[in-house]
Amino acid sequence: MGLPIKRKVGVIGAGLTRFMRRANETGRELSFFAAKEALKSSGLRYSDIESVVMSSAPDAFDGVHMKGEYLADGAGGFNRPYVRAFVGGGSGVFSIIHGWYMVASGMYDTCIVVAEEKMSSCMPHPQAAFNSIYDHTLERPLGVNLLWIFALEMNRYMTKHKISLEEIALVSVKNKKNAMNHPSAQLAKETSVEEVLKSEIMAWPVHRMMVSPTSDGAGALILASEDVARRVSEKPVWIEGVGWNLDTSYWTNRDLYYPDYVEKAARMAYEMAGIKDPRKEIHIAEPYDPFAYKELHHLEGLLLADRGQAPKLLAKGYFDKDGELPASPSGGLLGVGNPIAAAGIMKLCELFWQIRGEAGKRQVARPVKRGVAQAWGDLMQVGTVVVMGV
């Protein structure tokens, strides 16, 4: 069911670091730089911030114990109410929901939401965290990792709807090209379907250029109550709807061709935003795309395409930057990069800039009054969705 809105909450500032591999900065420093840029964007000072939300995926992802405490001062959490939130890859979008609660509840008038990940410093690779959560006798010997789990899901999606690898590869082509105009981008380039399909096969049918990179980076947003937002900002962007859903972690018990968890989270957010027909009322989408097929999967879960039809619409240019419903004009995770929690907040930053008409060369052709961002986490089970608009 939709959530009752206590107070209207606006986003008035956004900031991002460069996304890269092996950044010289610590996670604290990355958080500080993103927070500083967001404050500068909003016109507020640190002394104006009443609460702080920090998001960073599970500690094992970048090998720092008690990461919330470690990152607190970099995010501005010293001597302020401070919350750390994470749900794996869904963390970045989930974090703004926590910030929304802080302000909508009436407890605080302002909140800074910061998301950070420093993936390249993790020893061993974050993939090891996934194998360790499984049964030590029956499952760990298989060497469970994300690549082959999602290869299973991608294969099921393609088989169910008779989707070709060429159709999947178009997501990588689109997003890497879109990212060429993003100042934070790690893997922006002009590429082709042929080049994507010639890249190394990681686990059939996943090719290397269909996979987002290991990344370091941070992002931040400034949230404010309606009174404060209207007083300090000429163009606040409002949080109109929020939604989340947690499915079972036993992915073997579900038919992987469709992300029910995304649809349920989306319906929750759309109901709160008063959206009846998302394909007409949503003008821009930032779906989560750690793998190329996932953008298509998630567009269908967001009810922006019929089941199995997102690849066909993509091939027709429907989701291009100048198409009817631009998807990932930022360049997404495939083009900008994937510092787990920060990747989700990057998508929220993109909505903020697109809705305000401040996305520069990435600005989409059609007028943007409302957008949706979505992230997905843990083991194909968490959906987090936020609708923003003017």
Question: Can you describe this structure?
Answer:
It is a single chain. This protein is an alpha/beta fold. It has one domain (9-124, 212-389): 3-Layer(aba) Sandwich (Peroxisomal Thiolase, Chain A, domain 1). It is built from 15 helices and eleven strands. The chain has helices at residues 27-42, 59-62, 67-75, 91-104, 127-132, 146-161, 165-178, 193-198, 226-232, 260-273, 278-281, 292-301, 310-315, 332-335, 340-355; strands at residues 9-16, 52-55, 82-85, 110-118, 201-203, 206-207, 216-225, 237-246, 284-286, 370-377, 382-389. The strands form two sheets. Strands 3-2-4-7-1-8-11-10-9 form a nine-stranded mixed beta sheet, with helices on both faces. Helix 4 (91-104) crosses helix 15. The longest helix has 16 residues, at 27-42. The relative contact order is 0.20. The model has no long low-confidence stretch (mean pLDDT 93).
